[in-house]
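Quick question: who can interpret this fold?

. . .
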Amino acid sequence: MVSRFPRFTEPQWEFLAVLDACEEPVHIEVAGTLAPLLPGPLFDLLRQADEHDIIRKHDADVFGLCPDLPEAVFRKLKEMNTTSRLAALVDRIREKGLLARVDPAVAARLLVRAGRPEEAARIEIDLAGKALEERDHETATRYLQQAADHSDLAENARRFEPDFVAAALDLSHLSVAMGKGFSDVPRLLEKARGVAEHLGDRRSRALINLHLGRFLYFGEKRSEALAALSSGREEVEDLGDADILTQSSEFLGLFFFIQGLFKEAMVHYERTLTSVQDEGGSRPSDPLAPVLMSFCAANLGQFHRAIGILDMHWRWATREQEQGQAITYRAIMGVLLLRFHKKREASFHLYGALHDAIETKNALAAYFAKGGLAMHSFLEGRLKEARDTWAQAVIEATRAGIVRQWVSPLVLEILLELDRLGYEPIPDFSYRSQCEKALKDPSIHLRGVALRLEGLRARAGGEQSEQIQSYLEASEGNLVRSGDPVELGKTRLEMARLEL
C-alpha cells in the first residue's frame, strides 16, 4: 500500500527525480547540487529510502535507485521527469560545471531523454573513440551503434558526421584485427557510407566501399565483394593522390586476390608493406594483408617467403601484445606449414592458436585453426576425425558471420576424397556444393583446381576422354593466368596421364 511509504517532501522528491533521470548511480555531490537538500532532510531521505528499497548505496557517496521500485514511487518519478524537465536538468548540469562529474554514458542517455539526440551522438562518438584507443571492440561497437541510431533522430547532425565516419572505419580495422564483429560492423559501414555521400566526401566513400568489400568477402558474398571493391578502386584511382592510394593498397590487393590474380595482388601488398616500413612501422594497418600476402606467395611457389611473412608478423604482434592478430597469424601459419608438408610444426602452431582463440573468443582464428587441424587429421589418415572437426568449424564460423572462408586447394581435394570414400557430407560444406561454388567463383585459381578435380571425377565415372580433356584444358588455362606452378603442374600431370 502507498500509505506504508514515508511522505517525502517536495525537495526530497526532486532529489529522487535526479537519480531517476540519470538512470545510473551518481555521486551524492552531483545529485545534491542539482536538487539541493539540507543535511538533515538528506540523511532522513537516505535512511527512509534505504528501509523501503528505494535508494541503494553503490560506493562511498555514490547512490542510485533500486532496480525494482515500489509502483507508487515509480509512477511519481516518471510523471515528474518530463522531456522539458530533463532538458532543464541537462542545462543545470552544464551551468554548474558538473558534466565532468557525470558518467558520459549517463549524460548521453539523459540527452536522448531530454530530446537532444544530436548531443548524445556527439558524446557516444567520443566514447567509441576512447574504446577504440583501448582496443575494446564490444564497447566501441555499442557506442557507434547508439550514435547511428541517435543521429537518425537528430535534425542538426552534420557537425559530428565526419567523426562518425572516421570512427566506423577505425572500428572496421579493429574488428578484423580481433576477429570479431562480422555481423555488426557492416551495418555501421553502410550507415557511414550514407553519411559520406550526404557530406559529399568521396575519399571516405571510396574507403568505406573497400572496407565493405572486405566484410562481404568474409560473408561468402564474393561477387558482391568484388563489386564493392571495384567501385572503391575506381573512385580511388579517380582521386589519384598518393595518400589515398597508400591507404587503399591492401584492399586493392584483396581485389586481385579474390580473382586469383596473385602476381597483381602481390604488387599492392608489397606497396602496403613498403609504405608502413617507410613510416617506421612493422606491419600494414590491415591485419589480414600479411595473411593474404603469404597465400599469394605460396600460390606463386614462393614457399619460404610465405612462411617468413607470417612468422615475422606473428612475432611482431606477440611482442607488441596485439593478441588478436598474433593468434590469427599463427593459425594461418599452421595451415601453410601443412601445405608444405611440415606436419609436426603445423600441429604445434594450430593447437596453440586454437587454445588462444577460444580463450579470447577470436572467431576468425578459431575457424582457421580448426580447419587446419582437420587438414592435419586427414593427412595423418584420421578421416572421420577430419570430417567431424571440419563440420564443427563450419558451424561455429557460420554463427560468427564467417562463411566458407577457404582459399587452399587442399580443401577441395580433401572434400573430394571424403566424398569418394563415402563419408557423410558436411552440412552446407559437401564436395559437390563447394565445387559448384568454386566453378562460379570469381577466382580463376579455385576454378582451375575445381575443373581438374571434375576431370578426375569424370575419368573415375568412365566418361569420354574428350569430356575429361575439356575439363583439364580449361583447368590449365585458368591456372596459367593465376600463376600457381604447383596446381598447374598437377593439371598437366593429369593431362599427360590421359594421353598415356
